[in-house]
From TrEMBL:
<protein>
    <recommendedName>
        <fullName>Rho GTPase activating protein 9</fullName>
    </recommendedName>
</protein>
<feature type="domain" description="PH">
    <location>
        <begin position="11"/>
        <end position="117"/>
    </location>
</feature>
Amino acid sequence: FELTFLMRSQELEKAGLLNKTKIAEGGRKLRKNWSPSWVVLVGNSLIFCVLSKQKPGNSRPESSVDLRGAQLHWANELSSKKNVFKLRTVTGNEFLLQSETDSLIKEWYDTIQNVIDRLDRE
Ligand code: I3P
């Protein structure tokens, strides 16, 4: 599994750097732990990668989220940061994603919502 492979594959919809924290696991609330994550949207999945400081091209996948049945909401009330949205999976995992750049976070929101909508119609 290599990001380079994903980059070349036609399934890649979007990739970029966002701030991420998981706030719930299976419906159980977690303590926030914000960190930068390389986020890759490929097929029906959002993949979070650990950034390698030594080799920036070699980000390792850390976890992935199945977008089927997922819910997306702007969630600025859930953080002191701006530009925050919440992604909730069918399994009750919840993530906050954030960027300082307004246009960038809006693009991510719209692209993920489009994938969720497409999966809902299938
Ligand atoms: C949390 C940390 C988070 C903050 C969170 C704090 O403190 O400062 O950055 O979330 O706020 O509890 P700690 O490091 O002690 O866990 P935001 O940056 O999203 O505001 P919260 O408890 O109001 O969610």
